[in-house]
Amino acid sequence: MALSLFDRLRFTFGKRKARTRVSDDMTDKTFDEAELRERLSPEQFAVTQQAATERAFSGEYWDVWEDGTYHCIVCDEELFSSETKFDAHCGWPSFDRALSDDKVGEKRDLSHGMVRVESVCGKCGAHLGHVFPDGPTDTGLRYCMNSASLRLAPKEESGESSAES
Ligand SMILES: [Zn+2]
To answer: Comparing C-alpha atoms, which of 63, 120, 56, 60 is closest to residue 86?
Structure first.
């Protein structure tokens, strides 16, 4: 099951049509711009709607290690578990996998003279960050996300029965 990092990315690109493909006509258009501008901070709007990137070490979650689930700031979909978060020393919250394959979509990003894989919310299409093939765990992936795209629901809030030890 362990694909090399390169194979994994090539697979991801090559199988584009067979996988979760996020395009404008697929995304849930339940949020209009005026509503989002009012509800989100200017930075959250710029990151999720205009694919901006927050400054490294400036976001809320790069150095947060609380248990919980990270939700999309726009549509509240659950995207990442704190269990898959790791310290990538890059100043952005980093995960080695999404909660499931359909939670986080991927788009090819050719901006800034680079070929990168953009990560977007699989439900609403909000920009989340980028995924790189240099993760330190068995997935080989590093989801380098913007804190501005995420909201951490602490375990008490998201879990049904949080068994205290
Ligand atoms: Zn979303």
So the answer is: 63
Distance (angstroms) between ligand 1 centre and the Cα of 7 equals 28
* CATH classification code of 5-156: 2.170.150.20
- The full set of domain ranges for the chain reads 5-156
CA of 99 to the centre of ligand 1 (A): 13
Among residues 75, 121, 124, 144, the one annotated as catalytic is 144
pLDDT tens per residue, range 140-165:
999 999 999 999 999 975 455 545 54
* Residue 54, pLDDT above cutoff 50: yes
For ligand 1, the distance from its centroid to the CA atom of residue 39, given in whole angstroms, is 14
Assess whether 144 carries a catalytic annotation. Answer: yes
